[in-house]
Design goal:
Distance between the termini of chain A: 61 Å
Strand order of the largest sheet of chain B: 2-1-3-4-5
Largest sheet of chain B: 5 strands, parallel
Number of helices of chain B: 8
Number of strands of chain A: 11
Helix content of chain B: 25-40%
Largest sheet of chain A: 5 strands, mixed
Strand order of the largest sheet of chain A: 6-8-9-11-10
Number of helices of chain A: 11
Oligomer: heterodimer
Mean pLDDT of chain A: 80
Low-confidence stretches of chain A: 1-20
Structural class of chain B: alpha/beta
Radius of gyration of chain B: 18 Å
Strand content of chain A: 5-15%
Largest interface: A-B, 26 and 23 residues
Radius of gyration of chain A: 44 Å
Chain lengths: 517, 229
């Protein structure tokens, strides 16, 4: 519960009492009681001959009971007095006078009065406690409903609206939520019946925001303010103020509603804090992930660009300065090393560029492409880069066009082939196939290497995750990003049915005929 | 003189691929190691005359190789390291590496470092009277320095700094080494202090102090007395 303070807050937020049972008598209750007693008199006259006089008193007890249960203790007591007088007047000798002839009848009347009063008291109290219990159950139910709604509120927001909706229900009146935005309190959410806040209400809300205490609608000094305002802490950002116009049927009802409002706001505070923490945590995770990627990118550039560069520069200077002292084969080997490393550099630069294009979404416009073109270009590049390897290529006839980008798809296919070449024995072919599926085109690259262990399969598409010493960890990550961009998917099956190898499969959806290019 | 043996420690086959023939062509006999463990074994077993050590090894930190080697051996170590890894280079030098070459490098740069490091270094307290480096003559006995025969007025501290650089001519001398040597261990981190002294020395010995040719700066690491004219 929100701490309740003495002093200026104390007068509008008294501590919760046990529910009273002494409801003030109402005009309706008294009228109904008179009617009940009158009815008892009439019935008594009818049964006058059948029942003994003392037995008739039971009729009045019933009347007192009904009026006490229906209208509370005081009305019951009025009923008891009326019954006492009526019974004395109509049924105790001498009839039609308030005097009593028989001394025994005095005793009967006294007992009657006591019984009637006690009955009224017990029944009235039971009724009012039942009322209080019902109201409390209702409030608890509403708080529980709020809890349930809170637990499903999306992280992105909607919590303000939720608070206002439930606050309105509990207060049984309009509710609003204000937040400090740019040094001024502004309504961030309000129930439809809230209307506009007048200056007095705004000032009251501002006071609550600054002091962190609540203000009742009836609090002195805030004339014209209809709302009770409560501070709402938590949520990381500026503190909020919740306002509600509490309508109630009785003083007790009002107190209970105020308490329920406090309970609701406390729940809301916890929820706001939780959302703030979740938000912070998510932000921290995102920052850490970005940081990790950045440093991975830096070390990737540092290592994967620098090593080939170091080899090229070292080989070139060796050839120039020491070439005369080297045997012919050594010179040829250094030239080959230069060529290979330049190729490696260019592949890495191509991947870095592709990654940068993907990250920055630069110059990427998808249009209808022939997948076969990209595959042939990639295979040609692979044949040049890995001239010692054999490639088996199958491209299905008259393939439908898909939405994509040829250079990116070529890079994807080259990366998959490059990956297959690096992870399979030199005497094994790499198989590249393009087939048409029901609503997609399927591209696959199959190798007969050792395969990818099951526990690594989920990570190989992660950026900078590399199984090979010479791998950059960019190739497969680019594959996944590009394929996702095309609206497709990439999967790996390893090992193949024969126990070794791996098959990477890409599915790119074929747009329905007549779709916009 | 028999062939000097050089151990190349680098896990990149491509680096080995050009270093080996280049050093062979320069008249060295070359062995190679692809990992830190292999390197430590080779240093113990084959007692190379020099180790060229890449700091990025797959099995252990290259600095670790330096530490473990220095326990039993004074074999000169030249570290290969990325250009932007200053702290790593400084740590390697402080741990006992003799010099470094930043990747990527031309073979000439590495050969020059190798030559300097293999050259016998003037012993610490040997009674050398004087060292001549290009136009500079440093007379330790007389605590005097001259350039082209003309005396250079140096304060005692300036003379000590210049003397330390001259004794290590051609080799990199770290800030920490100079500061500890001349001012004591308490001043090991006073790099700014040293910068001022070097500025004063350059003003006295360099023909154009803004383009020093004798006392060269190794950015972020230290200084090097140029002994190649």
């Amino acid at each position: 519960m929100v701490a309740m303070k003495d002093g200026i807050d104390g007068e509008f937020l008294p501590p919760l009492e046990r529910p009273g049972w002494r409801a003030r008598p109402t005009v309706g209750g008294v009228v109904a009681t008179i009617t009940l007693v009158a009815a008892a008199i009439l019935i008594g006259h009818g049964l006058w001959t059948a029942l003994p006089a003392a037995g008739l008193s039971l009729l009045f007890i019933v009347a007192v009971l009904i009026s006490a249960i229906s209208f509370g203790f005081w009305v019951g007591l009025i009923g008891a007095l009326l019954s006492f007088l009526a019974y004395n007047f109509f049924f105790v000798e001498p009839i039609h006078t308030f005097s009593v002839a028989e001394p025994a009848d005095v005793l009967v009347l006294a007992v009657f009065l006591i019984v009637a009063a006690l009955t009224g008291l017990l029944a009235g109290r039971a009724r009012e406690e039942a009322d209080a219990a019902r109201r409390r159950a209702e409030m608890l139910e509403r708080l529980a409903a709020f809890s349930a709604d809170l637990s499903t509120v999306p992280r992105s927001g909607g919590i303000d609206e939720l608070i206002v909706r439930h606050l309105g229900r509990i207060a049984a009146g309009p509710a609003i939520l204000l937040r400090k935005i740019d040094d001024a309190l502004a309504i961030v959410s309000s129930s439809p019946d809230a209307g506009v806040l007048d200056d007095n209400s705004l000032q009251a809300a501002d006071w609550v925001q600054r002091h962190g205490d609540s203000i009742a609608a009836t609090a002195p000094g805030w004339h014209g303010n209809r709302y009770a305002f409560f501070p709402l802490k938590g949520g990381g950002g500026a503190a909020a103020v919740a306002g509600a116009e509490i309508t109630s049927t009785s003083q007790i009802d009002r107190k209970e509603r105020e308490h329920a409002v406090h309970a609701l706001l406390r729940q809301a505070e916890i929820a706001l804090e939780r959302t703030a923490f979740e938000h912070d945590a998510a932000e921290a995770r995102a920052t850490a992930e970005q940081e990790r990627l950045r440093s991975a990118l830096l070390s990737s550039i540092s290592h994967d660009l620098r090593t080939p560069l170091a080899t090229i520069l070292g080989s070139v200077t060796s050839l120039r300065e020491l070439g005369n002292a080297m045997p012919t084969e050594t010179r040829a080997d250094l030239l080959l090393a230069i060529e290979e490393e330049a190729d490696r550099l260019s592949r890495h630069v191509a991947n870095l560029l592709a990654m940068t294009r993907l990250e920055a979404k630069l110059n990427i416009s998808l249009h209808l492409i022939d997948v076969g073109d990209a595959v042939h270009a990639a295979v040609n590049r692979a044949r040049r880069a890995f001239s010692a390897r054999s490639f088996v290529v199958f491209v299905g006839p008259s393939l439908p066009l898909v939405r994509g980008d040829i250079p990116l798809l070529e890079q994807v296919m080259f990366n998959l082939i490059d990956n297959a070449v690096r992870h399979s024995p030199a005497d094994q072919p790499v198989e590249i196939a393009v087939r048409e599926g029901p609503a997609y085109i399927e591209l696959s690259v199959t190798d007969h290497g050792r395969g990818v262990p099951a526990n690594e399969q989920s990570r190989i598409f992660d950026k900078f995750y590399s199984r090979a010493v010479s791998g950059t960890g960019l190739g497969l990550a680019i594959c996944r990003e590009v394929v996702t961009l095309f609206g497709g998917s990439i999967t790996i099956i390893s090992p193949l049915p024969q126990g070794t190898g791996a098959c990477f499969t890409i599915q790119i959806p074929v747009p329905p005929v007549g779709a916009a290019p | 003189m028999s062939e000097r043996r050089i151990l190349i420690v680098d896990d990149e086959p491509q680096m080995q691929r050009f270093l080996k023939p280049a050093l062979t062509a320069s008249g060295f006999s070359v062995a190679s190691a692809m990992s830190g463990a292999e390197a430590l074994r080779a240093i113990r077993a084959e007692c190379p005359d020099l180790v060229v050590l890449d700091l990025g090894l797959p099995d252990m930190d290259g600095k670790n190789v330096i530490v473990q080697t220095r326990v039993h051996s004074k074999v000169p170590i030249i570290v290969l390291s990325a250009r932007d890894h200053e702290p790593e280079k400084i740590a390697a030098l402080d741990l006992g590496a003799n010099d470094y070459v930043a990747k990527p490098f031309g073979i000439g740069e590495l050969l020059a470092r190798i030559r300097v490091v293999l050259r016998p270094r003037a012993p610490e307290h040997a009674n050398i009277d004087a060292i001549e480096i290009g136009p500079l003559k440093i007379d330790f006995a007389g605590h005097r320095a001259s350039k082209d025969g003309e005396a250079i007025p140096l304060t005692p501290k300036e003379f000590e700094v210049l003397g330390e650089l001259a004794r290590n001519a051609g080799r990199v001398v770290t800030h920490r080494h100079l500061l500890t040597k001349v001012w004591g261990p308490a001043h090991a981190a006073d790099t700014q202090y040293l910068r001022v002294f070097i500025g004063q020395i350059r003003a006295k010995i360099e023909s154009n102090p803004t383009e020093p040719r004798l006392v060269l700066t190794e950015p972020g690491i230290g200084y090097r007395m140029n002994d190649e004219g």
